[in-house]
Design goal:
By secondary structure, the chain is α/β, with parallel strands linked by helices. It has 9 helices and 8 strands. The chain has a single domain, classed as Spore Coat Polysaccharide Biosynthesis Protein SpsA, Chain A.
Length: about 260
């Protein structure tokens, strides 16, 4: 079980922001948590900010702990290393609000774009996903090629063509819906083992596929996004891992494992 460090005091229902963290000392050093803390402090819709550390080997946990002391809404959850997907899942389970939003630590999509997600959630959508459409401004060629390849395989095997961008790390959903979905996942479970960094590229695909099979309402909205280099991404290893995961997801979908757990 993950260990949790929180500031004192209870948190009323509202919106929980989950941020996965693995060796993010460089991003934290350039002030991303200060930006998150200032932004959420000024917006009462954000009731808590849960930073889930995925077994970092750098100073990330210590730096997040400092932010927890400075910002009353912050909490630190310390996981053993299982990859980004399990970090997000741990944050969802720890959340105490009706809605959960998650954002990458690099803030490639600025938190000001959250207003677009809020608007769709207020219209009754169960999940709202930020979308870069087909644009990847500033991304190097190999990252664009990886995105194109993932999209092609996704469309052929998983038939998620209705969603243009499943991979943007900026999403909002009802917590009860998210718990239903993660309870049905077959690839990204607590039994998953990773060596080194794992970006869990196929996690969004499994999550959204299950939500689609369960007929939850999904809205996709364009958001501002800029490329921020992530040194933990290993193109070849991550591509192979994603392909294997997508094949497994397709198998579980075709055998009815997601709708009949």
């Amino acid at each position: 079980m993950p260990t949790v460090a929180r500031t004192t005091g209870s948190t009323p229902l509202g919106l929980s922001l989950v941020i996965p963290c693995y060796n993010e000392a460089a991003n934290i050093g350039r002030g991303v948590l200060d930006a998150v803390g200032d932004f959420t402090a000024a917006d009462d819709r954000f009731r808590e900010v849960i930073v889930v550390d995925d077994g970092s080997t750098d100073r990330s946990p210590a730096l997040v702990s400092l932010a927890v002391r400075r910002f009353p809404k912050f909490a630190l959850v310390e996981n053993r290393h299982q990859g980004k997907a399990l970090a997000v899942i741990a944050g969802i389970r720890q959340a105490r609000s009706d809605h959960v939003m998650f954002s990458d630590m690099d803030l490639a999509t600025p938190l000001t774009e959250a207003e677009k997600l809020f608007a769709e959630a207020q219209r009754g959508y169960d999940l709202v996903i930020g979308s870069r459409l087909t644009q990847r401004p500033g991304a190097p060629f190999h990252r664009k090629a990886l995105a194109w390849g993932l999209l092609t395989v996704r469309d052929r095997l998983l038939r998620l063509r209705a969603l243009r961008d499943t991979q943007c790390g900026f999403k909002l959903f009802r917590r009860d819906v998210a718990l239903d979905v993660i309870g049905r996942l077959r690839v990204f479970t607590s039994r998953r083992r990773v060596v080194g960094s794992s970006v869990s590229a196929a996690f969004d695909l499994e999550f959204l596929l299950v939500a689609t099979l369960l007929h939850y309402r999904i809205a996709e909205v364009p958001v501002i996004w800029r490329h921020v280099e992530n040194r933990s991404v290993r193109v070849v290893k991550d591509s192979v891992e994603a392909l294997v995961d997508i094949a497994r997801i397709a198998y579980f979908a075709r055998t009815g494992r997601y709708t009949h757990p």
